[in-house]
Design a protein that fits this description.
Layout lengths: L9 E4 L1 H9 L16 E2 L9 E8 L2 E8 L6 H19 L7 H8 L5 E2 L2 H16 L9 H7 L11 H8 L7 E4 L4 E4 L12 H15 L5 E5 L3 E5 L12 E6 L7 E7 L2 E7 L4 E4 L2 E4 L15 E6 L2 H14 L1 H8 L6 E7 L6 E6 L6 E3 L2
Length: about 375
């Protein structure tokens, strides 16, 4: 990534003119779910006509791979092996299978140290770092809050004060103690549990990309559920080896409309938004992304897309930045020139959107017009 733009840089899109501008982009044939219910309008095949697609369902999402055909000849076999990696990681990370390693940790770690598979232990260490660096806005122990609010069952409702207080008493990554020498994890309090739903898809894409590159595949784009992207090489290596892979950013108020585009180059992109998991109560909207520090739904952001060196970090920081808002997120990027983000915020008028950009130079992003 290039050096970040000043944190104060913003571009405002308001009113009918903004909506008319982005509506012109709706004819782009995006790789989407056909319903507009995705934050990304992922890579358009028109940008590289010689791509092969592979798809598999995992982690309650469709994982798709766009692979530049013929780079190398046996890339198809590598693609299938990489999809197997994603399935294996789902089996390890899910909390919905009795045999998963994460569920076993949640069962035992409050009573005794639990030995952890090395790559999973590394992910736990990274999660602890993200928690610390974001001031607690990212927290893999926040699942009790999602359960209290009903979002874990997709049945959102205002929790009773006692239930919310009980859930908050179980949350806090400082309760997760890691022993690097023994490669163990333990919880300091009963009721603590970990869940990688805020970075698991990006991590799976990182591991799948790692296998592809080890097999000599250099030009590809992965996405998981269209909220997580990892891409290497170029969408059109025959024309421009450094071009990267363009992905569209959806307008938060208009289905099937692209508002902006970012280029992913040898790294990851993650987006977070509460546009499709929320409920209304008493005239107020409550989204599913919760602030683990307060136990309440985060407010004030439509969506945020983060570009980072890895898919796991992009996913984690997109969640944290959604919670933190623009100013605190921009401050984070002052010490991380390899991180950039594009944040969509409510504008000053009804139906308007404010676009705030930090750490992305002009050749990495553009408005769709």
């Amino acid at each position: 990534m290039s050096q970040p733009t000043p944190p104060s840089r913003r571009q405002f899109l308001t009113g009918r003119a903004a909506l008319d501008a982005v509506r012109k982009a709706a004819t782009d044939a995006a790789l989407g779910d056909g319903q507009g219910n995705s934050p990304f309008a992922v890579f358009d095949s028109a940008d590289a006509p010689y791509t092969v697609r592979y798809t598999r369902t995992a982690m309650a999402s469709d994982f798709q791979l766009a692979l530049v055909a013929g780079f190398p000849d046996d890339a198809g076999e590598a693609a299938l092996a990489a999809l197997d990696v994603i399935e294996d990681l789902e089996a390890q990370l899910t909390v919905y299978r009795e045999t998963s390693e994460v569920l076993e940790i949640n069962r035992r770690a409050a009573a005794e140290p639990v030995v952890v598979e090395p790559r999973l232990f590394d992910l736990l260490q990274r999660a602890a770092t993200w928690h610390r660096e974001t001031g607690g806005a990212f927290d893999i122990t926040s699942d009790p809050l999602s359960k209290a609010w009903g979002f874990a069952r997709r049945q959102g409702a205002i929790p009773a004060p006692e239930a919310l207080a009980e859930a908050r008493g179980k949350v806090g990554a400082e309760r997760v103690v890691l022993d690097a020498a023994a490669q163990t994890v333990r919880f300091t309090e009963p009721g603590t549990e970990i869940n990688f739903n805020s970075c698991g898809k990006g991590y799976a894409l990182d591991r799948a990309a790692e296998l592809l590159r080890a097999r000599g595949v250099e030009h590809f784009l992965w996405h998981g559920g269209q909220s997580s992207v990892v891409a290497f090489g170029s969408a059109n290596p025959g024309r421009d080896l450094a071009a990267g892979w363009p992905i569209g950013i959806g307008h938060p108020l208009r289905i099937d409309v692209r508002l902006a585009e970012v280029i992913v180059r040898n790294g990851g992109a993650g987006t977070s938004g509460a546009g499709f998991q929320f409920f209304r109560h008493g005239g107020k909207r409550y989204g599913h992304i919760l602030d683990p520090r307060t136990g309440m739904p985060a407010e004030g952001v439509f969506s945020v897309t983060v570009l980072a060196p890895s898919g796991a970090e992009a996913d984690a920081l997109s969640t944290a930045f959604y919670v933190l808002g623009y100013e605190a997120s921009a401050k984070f990027c002052e010490t991380r020139p390899d991180i950039g983000f594009l944040m969509l915020l409510p504008g000053r008028g009804g139906g308007s959107v404010e676009l705030a950009v930090c750490g992305l130079v002009d050749d990495i992003w553009r408005l769709v017009d």
